[in-house]
Specification:
Elements: E1 2-4, H1 11-34, H2 43-65, E2 75-77, H3 80-101, H4 107-131, H5 138-154, H6 164-171, H7 182-189, H8 193-207, H9 211-218, H10 225-252, H11 262-277
Antiparallel strand pairs: 1-2
Amino acid sequence: MIRFLDPAPHWKKYVAQVRDFDAVLEYAKAVSTSLIGTVPAHKHIRYGEQIFVKLLGHCVTLRRIAPDATRRTGRELWDAPSMSSLARCVIEAHDAFTYIALGHMTSTERDFRLQLWELHSKNRRAKMLRAIGSVDPRLSTIEAEEKILQNAITGSSFFTSISANVKQKILGGDPPPFHLTQRERCAMADVNFDYYNVVTMHLSQNVHTHPLSIQQLLAFRAGDADALAMMSLPLDYALPFLARVTHEMRNMFPKKVASPPSRTASKMLLWRTISAHGVKGKAP
């Protein structure tokens, strides 16, 4: 899907979309830079900062592979599936950030979330090593740490309050990274579930080799207005979640992170509002 750049009228809207993304991305980079050398006192904040860095990396790469009418390089590869994959990674990083780093809760629940998060990691590492018949002596250490975490989780007073399904998975040796459903996590994060569901479903159709993605690619003509609209969607889908996490990072470190420029602040608010209320019933 290679196109020769053509400054057609339909590029104007796309260029405006890219400028919005660039404005928020540049502020997010500035936030990250301002936190270099900072060591948060709490584990959940340390995790949150690293998740933010991961999310930022996805956004930087997403921007690099997006069509750019201003570069005038002559030829560009238009890769909608890869852009969709990166946008999906951005949203998943947002989910992890809100679950681990945000929320007002008791210390018991906070500890439970962190232990479940870490148990999931130990469990997956051990399963992968066993699957390849690893003789790495660290496997026994990982398995011992996994058992300690499982005992801590099942012995927590918060364990009694979680769903029977999650309890069964933990006890059965298949712990999830989150104890809340996606709908519950959206409610906690103030994200409209229908909006979230449509965005992630649409991106997934392009990430996976599903019939819808192949049908779209059969009709895809790089440079056409419809193709350009398709390429802009991953940017639009990722932007609310980049804005949300960047906003929360600013709130976490108000003395270290400067406020965004006024135009950037207004764009961040706009996109956070879209993700909170959705677009159902809005004019196209």
